[in-house]
Specification:
This protein is mainly β and 175 residues long. It has helices at 25-31, 165-170, and strands at 2-9, 12-19, 34-44, 50-59, 63-67, 82-90, 93-101, 117-127, 135-143, 147-152.
Length: 175
């Protein structure tokens, strides 16, 4: 079965159709070395120049991000996880969203696993140089081997210099 897919390399977006097996897309991407796009369009990030080809094989190590929207996979294989809000710099992109880990794992464990691509949910993506608009996706797969920087985001409120906890409580806030 062929499905539409959008992926990003360091210098271009790749759109096309791929042959999707019965399993999850993330498993298929992590298990193979090549991803074959049919009716592919490559669009340069820098100037928008497009190249169209009937068939294109891309080595998975060249891909930075893969958009997963609509590819839920087998519900039986899902496990309970804890989310860790994070900001990642990967290739030319900044990805802000949630990494997932098993409850017994340490934060950011997903970045040390053996799988090349890890899911980030509730993701917003922008270019580090700010040359394109920010876009949001429910799920993206991030090539963990290309992550240059990762930053945890606060999960609890941080008090600023001008706002004391007592002031919030006095205004009717909860402790």
């Amino acid at each position: 079965m062929r499905e539409s897919l959008v992926a990003w390399a360091g210098d271009c977006q790749v759109r096309g159709e791929i042959d999707l097996d019965e399993g999850r897309l993330s498993d298929q991407v992590n298990e193979g070395d090549l991803l074959t796009f049919f009716a592919a369009t490559l669009e340069a990030i820098e100037d928008g120049h497009q190249v169209v080809c009937d068939e294109l094989e891309v080595e998975r190590r060249e891909l930075v991000l893969i958009e997963i929207d609509g590819h839920q996979g087998d519900p039986i294989r899902r496990t309970r996880t804890i989310t860790d809000p994070v900001r990642l710099e990967v290739g030319p992109f900044r990805v802000t969203g949630n990494l997932h880990r098993h409850p017994a794992s340490q934060p950011f464990a997903a970045l040390t696993r053996h799988q090349r691509f890890v899911p980030v949910t509730a993701a917003t993506i922008d270019l580090l140089d700010g040359s394109r608009s920010t876009f949001a996706r429910d799920v993206v797969l991030v090539n963990r081997e290309l992550v240059q920087k990762h930053e945890p985001l606060a999960q609890i409120p941080v008090w600023g210099d001008d706002l004391e906890p007592e002031a919030t409580l006095a205004e009717g806030g909860a402790a």
